[in-house]
Amino acid sequence: xxxxxxxxxxxxxxxxxxxxxxxxxxxxxxxxxxxxxxxxxxxxxxxxxxxxxxxxxxxxxxxxxxxxxxxxxxxxxxxxxxxxxxxxxxxxxxxxxxxxxxxxxxxxxxxxxxxxxxxxxxxxxxxxxxxxxxxxxxxxxxxxxxxxxxxxxxxxxxxxxxxxxxxxxxxxxxxxxxxxxxxxxxxxxxxxxxxxxxxxxxxxxxxxxxxxxxxxxxxxxxxxxxxxxxxxxxxxxxxxxxxxxxxxxxxxxxxxxxxxxxxxxxxxxxxxxxxxxxxxxxxxxxxxxxxxxxxxxxxxxxxxxxxxxxxxxxxxxxxxxxxxxxxxxxxxxxxxxxxxxxxxxxxxxxxxxxxxxxxxxxxxxxxxxxxxxxxxxxxxxxxxxxxxxxxxxxxxxx
Length: 398
Known about the structure:
Layout: H1 3-12, H2 14-41, E1 45-51, H3 63-76, E2 85-89, H4 95-107, E3 115-121, E4 124-128, E5 143-147, E6 163-165, E7 168-169, H5 170-179, E8 184-190, E9 202-203, E10 209-214, H6 216-228, H7 233-242, E11 248-251, E12 260-264, E13 267-270, H8 271-282, H9 287-294, E14 307-310, E15 333-339, E16 342-346, E17 360-363, E18 369-376, E19 379-386, E20 393-396
Parallel strand pairs: 1-2, 1-3, 3-8, 4-10, 6-10, 8-11
Antiparallel strand pairs: 4-5, 5-7, 9-12, 11-14, 12-13, 15-16, 15-20, 16-19, 17-18, 17-20, 18-19
């Protein structure tokens, strides 16, 4: 429309525009109301991913990679908004950093019906609590399972000298989960609770024992949450003994076992995190079925038996993982970036032994096609032979 034509239209159609303006106003009102309803009916998906490699003693190698395994799965398979995924890696994963992030990112933001994922990869330990909320649980030494932040160091002179550490207790995680306003909670724990070492793989355990004590900060923090939740110690004990506070907990080991990390065809990661995300990429199965796939993959000599626990009476083990009923299509790979004629791929759902230079992937939906050029761990570079876009799920041409 030319400027003169526009002036003519405005001059002689003002009454029509006024009517149209009223209609547009009414339409906007209806659209805003519909948007609010949609926003209320569509759950928000929030994730906090914690991984620690750079411990001052007994550093690990695969924990930060575990976060990439989980992050790519959540974004490209389970439709999480990247902005809603908070990652704490290495120096950011202090005791205060982890607890604050759980409160601010998960507890304060999650509303009833929303979806929450918390993933921890790092050292686990077992320490002594001289004034426990719960008695009669744990092993005969009265030790409690903990998660080891990056700033929780053993006392100088250990093992001859004992003292306090800045660990986060499993009891604390139970209280934090209890504070979430949604039941749709998945906690993934890739750590262990006793010491040990092997030649083949690294073990995610920091030493502990009867002379390693819980900090007063940790005990005070637990008391604060008991007060906020209006829970008496007796009520807490009853809830803790009953089972998990909310949703589902997926653990790399039984309480007294070791969690391993390994080199999976050039990619160092937690064995459990790798197998969990690998099968979640490939199949629309429930938690129970996924664990039936995982367990045979772990060598018996490792004495590592991953397990899941769901809120008592919930039946959550029969639901799709992460409480999401409409994930993206199962896939072996996904396009994560496109630049000119080259695509970057995340190879989270394929046996890497099958991926070599020249391997062809095609889009699961549509005609996209790429040919592998190179691979570094789970990240591949491929030539685009038929157009693909970021997020395109792929499978291998057999």
